[in-house]
Design brief:
Blueprint (H helix, E strand, L loop, with lengths): L9 H9 L3 H20 L4 H18 L9 H19 L18 H11 L3 H11 L5 H8 L3 H19 L1 H5 L4
């Protein structure tokens, strides 16, 4: 295992990390941190999302022995990320999405901030997959691997989510109306 954690499956990495292999856990972090960030960003501001990612992986390391089925690691981690992000949003006094963004560098443009608000208003399944694709740059198969969804489900979520996002960002274009 130590020779090639890069080529290992998620289940193999989980088993190795459960045995104390730090390199295996580092590889799990490398594979999943963008997906965890997207899940957090769907609910909290950028600065809080970074804190959620750190918290999720710190907790994952200490609770890794509770993963009974190593192949289910993705779902376990994403559930933990959702719960931590919801807790962070509540602690900030908001619902699911933040009222205000904490300053980050570089500051998002007005269009990017509007797009993020529109994405956060979408149903959770679309919100998370769109953020993984548009913000984190993950491909459909990468999103499927990191969420435990089938590639077909990811494709449908991305398609429907993009359609809803277009409608919310430009209602006239979605209805075929003229300006």
């Amino acid at each position: 295992m130590a020779a090639s954690v890069v080529d290992a499956t998620i289940a193999e990495l989980v088993v190795a990390a459960q045995g104390g292999n730090h390199a295996a856990f580092t590889t799990l972090y490398a594979r999943f941190h963008r997906a965890v960030h997207a899940v957090a960003l769907a609910r909290v501001g950028a600065a809080d999302a970074a804190d959620v990612v750190q918290d999720v992986f710190a907790r994952a390391w200490t609770r890794l022995d509770s993963v009974r089925e190593p192949a289910a690691f993705a779902g376990w981690l994403m559930t933990m990320a959702r719960h931590r992000a919801i807790d962070r949003a509540r602690a900030r006094g908001g619902g699911d999405a933040p009222e205000r963004e904490v300053a980050v560098a570089p500051a998002p443009t007005a269009e990017a901030a509007a797009a993020l608000r529109a994405i956060r208003a979408l149903p959770e399944a679309y919100r998370e997959t769109l953020l993984m694709r548009l913000v984190e740059g993950l491909s459909g198969p990468e999103i499927a691997e990191r969420t435990g969804l089938t590639p077909e489900s990811v494709r449908v979520n991305l398609h429907r989510g993009m359609k809803l996002l277009r409608e919310r960002l430009d209602p006239q274009a979605a209805t075929g109306g003229t300006p």
